[in-house]
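no rush on this but wanted to send it before i forget. theres a chain ive been looking at and ive put its sequence and its fold in token form underneath. i want to understand how the tokens follow from the sequence so walk me through it. thanks a lot i owe you, the record is right below:
>
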Amino acid sequence: MAASELYTKEARVWIPDAEDVWKSAKLLKDYKQGDKLLRLELEDGTVVEHQLDPRTMNLPHLRNPDILVGENDLTALSYLHEPAVLHNLKVRFIDSKLIYTYCGIVLVAINPYETLPIYGTDIINAYSGQNMGDMDPHIFAVAEEAYKQMARDERNQSIIVSGESGAGKTVSAKYAMRYFATVSGSESEANVEEKVLASNPIMESIGNAKTTRNDNSSRFGKYIEIGFDKRYRIIGANMRTYLLEKSRVVFQADEERNYHIFYQLCASSNLPELKVLKLVSANNFHYTKQGRSPVIDGVDDAKELINTRNAFTLLGINDSYQMGIFRVLAAILHLGNVEIKDRDSDSSIIPPNNAHLTVFCDLMGVTYQDMSHWLCHKKLITATETYIKPFPKLQAINARDALAKHIYAKLFSWIVDHVNKALHATMKQHSFIGVLDIYGFETFEINSFEQFCINYANEKLQQQFNMHVFKLEQEEYMKEEIPWTLIDFYDNQPCINLIEAKLGILDLLDEECRMPKGSDDTWAQKLYNTHLNKCDLFQKPRLSNRAFIIQHFADKVEYQCEGFLEKNKDTVYEEQIHVLKLSKKFELLVELFQDEEQSVSPTEAQTGARTRLSVKPLKARATQSSREHKKTVGHQFRNSLQLLMETLNATTPHYVRCIKPNDYKYPFTFDPRRAVQQLRACGVLETIRISAAGFPSRWTYQEFFSRYRVLMKQKDVLSDRKLTCRNVLEKLIKDKDKYQFGKTKIFFRAGQVAYLEKLRADKLRAACIRIQKTIRCWLLRKKYLRMRSAAITIQRHVRGYQARCLAKFLRRTRAAITIQKFQRMYVARQRYRRMQDASLIIQCMLRGYVARQKYQQMVREHKAVIIQKMVRGWLARQWYKRSLEAIVYLQCCVRRMRAKRELKKLKIEARSVEHYKKLNIGMENKIMQLQRKVDEQHKDNKNLHDRLTNLENTYSSESEKLRNEVDRLRGTEEEARVNSNRITSLLEELAKLKKELEETQREKKTIEEYADKYKVETEQLVSELKEQNTLLKTEKEDLNRLILEQAQEMKEKMEKALVEETKQIECELNEERSRYQNLLTEHLHLEARYEDLKEEMTLTMVIPKPGHRRTDSTHSSNESEYTYNSEFAEREEEASRGPEDVPKAPLDMSLFLKLQKRVTELEQDKQSLQNELDRKEEQIHRIKATEEEQRNRARGAELEYESLKRQELESENKKLKNDLNELRKVLSEKPTAAISAPGSPAYKVLLDQLNASNEELEVRKEEVLILRSQLVSQKEAMQHKEDKETMTEAMFYAEDLQKMKDSGEITQAYLGLKEVNRSPKFSSKPVEVGDLLSRIRSPPKDYHELNEDGELWMVYEGLKETNRLLESQLQSQRKGYENEAEVLRGELQSLKEENNRQQQLLAQNLQLPPEARIEASLQHEITRLTNENLYFEELYAEDPRKYQFYRISLYQRIIDLMEQLEKQDKTVRKLKKQLKLFAKKIGEMGVFNQVENVSPGQIVDEPIRPVNIPRKEKDFQGMFEYKKDDEVKLVKNLILELKPRGVAVNLIPGLPAYILFMCLRHADYLNDDQKVRSLLTSTINGIKKILKKRGDDFETVSFWLSNTCRFLHCLKQYSGEEGFMKHNTTRQNEHCLTNFDLAEYRQVLSDLAIQIYQQLVKVMDSILQPMIVSGMLEHETIQGVSGVKPTGLRKRTSSIADEGTYTLDSILRQLSAFHSTMCQHGMDPELIKQVVKQMFYIIGAVTLNNLLLRKDMCSWSKGMNIRYNVSQLEEWLRDKNLMTSGAKETLEPLIQAAQLLQVKKKTDEDAEAICSMCNALSTAQIVKVLNLYTPVNEFEERVSVTFIRTIQIRLRDRKESPQLLMDSKQIFPVTFPFNPSSLSLETIQIPTSLNLGFLTRV
């Protein structure tokens, strides 16, 4: 496919940019051939038009797919070009926080300017032994590759670390050396690796300084050769240095410092030993204050000096030499402060008594006059004369500075020499690995001689690098048989020739230095004349005649000629040196300059013991020192560089390129311009270009098939993978030049993998669309079918519902009609009946009414007749009376009228009529009125007359009555007269009573007023009291609740604290145990080394055969893992050595003494740890005892109550016995039938006793309740006193009383207390419950004082409460009596039934044969106990404590029965054995009788032959007797030559341990301490020896771990200690040791078991280690889930299961093999659980560590595989019943890491879920997994940086270790729980296969 075809719409490209170097853009339309413009859209949405170059028409670089971004190897990118490399590095550095990246054979390291936790020992162990492509890029991976190639190829290696200042070269080289020191396994030597690492702080202090780009910049180059022996352990090292920057000693630019050592001394000037140096602050010295930056942030110079001095001491430079070094350094500082003044224009002078010069002379031991003179003068020697010429001031200052630089350079060389001497190997060096830490390409604004030399060295290294890369490419092509085409690459040989060839720059510089009047200007002119316009790489600046430009491989550099000659000459005046040589007081100074004539260069160190592959420098010896000083620095540097290149060419190089991400030292800040500049300069892009020129992408056939299987059809897949890939590629890529087929790989040109990835993504996208279409169709169809089915169902149900509703309606209608019919009928009937009844009632009432009316009328008529009769009579009488009166009245009136008429006539006559008419005008009317009045008066009179008549009649009747009354009154009058006297007295008394009544009424009124007032006050008081009572109740409830809460909280706190303290103590115990076991291991290692040294002393030195066996760093000393120390072993060694005299090898006595001292220290540490362990255990026992004592104290009240109850029951029992005796006496006296009759004496006695018993029972119950309440009160009082001492007594008693009231016991306690107070037993100690009641119920005292009558009311209330309490007590007692009677009846009935059942069982058992009686009785007993158990379980359901006591007693009875059954079984087996023996003997005698001739006498005597008498079988005592001389044979046959497999299969587990213990028992039986000690020592040493011989065999180690533990258990089980004997049988207790206490040997055996256990773990680790990564991570357990991404030159291990590849099944099979082996060997189950837990921890730790170090493994599909694998491991645990071993918990970090790979990682909710889920992972591990998460397919997404920051913010409060990896070498502390054996020793017999016939069974 043409490259232009990839430029389609939406394709992403890179375009140049001024700021970011390259910017990403997207094509908005397809590119067509001939287009000159590309329309692009940037990532920010800006649309731009990119103009193509009209000359080349080159299209912009294509961008790689997103799944390839962030790859570990840059060569894995599909498009290899500069923007892809830069972007990949930026993504890894900024987003993933990964500083290492592979670029082919180069490791690119970007300085993070931040401390990262990726260099610990755990990381080193993780990379040790791993392939370079299998792990993420790391400096340790490069170091491991070098170490592995050195061991595999027998070829020396070199690691070349280069980069700019501040890029991290020194740190990278330091970590590489640390890796070699860690994995080399040289622990048995005198800490050589520590010395190698100790050289770093020394070299950093004297060779590193702060620059503007780096706080710890190396100002010299160094090449360290680390030497290894044939076992590839470090034996020494050698260091070579290059081009020390001496000018820094006297000058520093702004923001820079001098070398660190000066500031360290100034910071420590207050130390007593440094007072003599007279140092002050660094700001006071000219050589340390020019940079104006004396302090580095985060660095303590005083502490750094301590580290430097410690390193000096470790390397053998003693304190006197250290003080000498410090004197020289202090003298240099004082020399810089020497002030030189002008004497005149041509001369200068130092003022006399200059303080700094005086100090300088004192420190250096020279005279002041000589030094001050020669600092200002020089000597000129001619052929005839010698002149002394003064210096001008400037030249004198330069001479002073030159002297300071020369002294420092000499001191630097001297220190390097002594470091090399300290690191010099004491034995022959087999191979070495060199680490080159050299400056990278440098270009500054002003470049001088130093930059020229540095860039010259980089040109040489780049040439070597290019040749090596070219060579590797050629080898790869030839190996795969790919046609080799010459690749054009940049060759920098012309630039090197320009510098070093004849008449080159260095040659002309040396020539100019030899000229008398040579100068920088003349040298520059020579350069112009020689090279300008003749060499394309040499140019002249336009505006300068004192500079030149060289076109280096990285960039053009302009060099200023000023100072070249001076720096190349490195002039030092001989007179000043001579003055220093004459120093007699300072030996070190003389030593520095004594080899002045022999030294080639002041910056070149003498090499130590060199290897055959290194080239030694030529040592030119000259007779005159002046000639040596004329040797230039350039010449020396060229020679040393040539030597370096020869060394590197003789080794296999490994390249580390350090990149500086920014110039401001900001952490994780990436400047693309600076980065790309360094990438161009360090050759990374050249590597990319060389790779891209050929076939950069390479796939194995299996990986290609696995990745692009989706592009193949089923018919294309053949059994031959190679042919399948060939056929598919021919169809996919038409241009055959785009790929090549090798033997094992397919080679692709650049861009072809991207094209294939595009096809694969398109195919997957199309497949996804089809799957989505099908799934969506299926889902919608399922939804439609569900809806249709639901609709039909709904319709069916609705129609059914409607039909049911209609039927229901019809039924209801019919029912309603029927109901209406009957209802209407009923209503009509009722209405008719009501009407009928009403009619009848009405008729009845009406007829009755009519009859009554008629009757009443008749009565009225009758009465009316009577009334009429009476009235008529009365009316007649009245009429008569009225008539009579009227007649009389009329007569009177007539008579009066007549009289008036006569009078009137007389008056008229007397007067005249007219006169009277005039006088009496108007009188007529008055007369008429008067007349009317008279008439009216007449009427009134008439009425009055009638009334008077009536009154007369009434009066007559009344008078009659009154007469009668008068008569009666006359009788009473007589009585009144009699009583008149009494009336008087009564009246007086009545008056008195009236007075008293009035007084009483007044008093009553007063009392009522007072009562009303008192009532009001009382009501007010009551209300107040009620309010206060309510408040008090509320407060009481609150306090009770608070107390309960506090008690609960305190209880929870105490429990939590106790749990935490227990956990802490357990952790401390485990830590102590782990520390003890680690020290034990170290102690054993040292013992093994000690034994090896003894063997080396006694054996001849044997030269080992050439060859190599790679040993893992953690198992480097397995062969000396265990030691043995016994007379037996020494005798064997003496026998093996023979009588010949063996020459002894030389012994390093210092090493021997160190080891011996170390052994002593370790023994002391072991003893201290053992004491600490004992102390911890004693502390735990003490804590347990304290807890037990507290529990006992808490149960004290209950026990006291039980004791009192027991005493009462005993007394009651005695009393009942006495009553029974009396009853018997009475019955015996009158044994007649009338005894039981009521009223008889016996009946009375029984009744009295019954009543007395009832009373006594009540009293006892009350006393028991009283005692219980007292005990509860005392107990709670104690608790309250302890918990809360501030509570008042009233509250305490109130709370107790409330508890008693709540429990229904207060009434019984009250009554019982009255009885107790009556009894003399408690008279001296009354219980204040009454006071308590009164105190509770009475109001406060102030209310009593206000109103005394309130007490009566309170008493009244109290009496009512007491009555209620008494009533409740009476009811409770009645209920209690009834319940007790019911319970007693039930018990009586159950006892009767049990008695009947027992009698039946007894009768049945008597009918059984004797053999079956025991079994039947046991079965019946078990049944009875079961029934009893069920019964008591129901009975004690409310009292768990009683039920628990009952269960314990039941268990004891069951155990006793089981023991009896076991004894019976043993007896039966013994009798059977005897029976068989007798049967066998009888059979033999029968055969004998058949063969022989029998005489009659013999026949007669046959019944009493001795043969027929049963002989008792010999009772063995469980011992084996052996002779002292057979001990060696016993150990040999039973330990050394025993094969575990045969013993495990055919014999009982632990048989050797049992045999050894039985032999030990016999020695104990003989009381032979020597024999006991010898046997135990021989046994222990024999086990050590067999483990040393076959310590890598799992079966052997497992077998002897099992037997050692069994031997240890036997020593405990039969020790005679009660704690170990409680599980023994009686027979086993008889076998206990009787004479010796072997507790100390138990500790020795425990240590030996720990040693064997650790060896077992190491063996398992070595077996499982190769399987774990492959089986748990790399192998695809679920096929097809994960795909293989493109890989680079550093090929990783394929995840496809090839032949020989380990899978998960391999791990499970191995685990099953381990488990079955341990079970066959009879290992303790608890120990098996610990072993399995350790195995699973190793699996989880190794898997997680590799996951954290492998970016390619952090994907969703890999998380699924891991979870499936973990589930298989858990299933294995379930199958083996090991889920309780704690093994599953050790996999929790791995499980959470797998879950983390699979969960959603976008929102804040996801972050919260992750933080709560991953509690077993540290923050560093979580962030690492998120950073490493890599999508395998385009459908996955990367984790955003924002999300990772959110996780970090949420987890920042976690307190955890910053360690990234788990310690896979951690071994959990092992314990050996006591596991007694049920096997009887007397039953053990020795099989003949063990060849132990010399043992006799006793």
Observations:
- The mean pLDDT is 77.
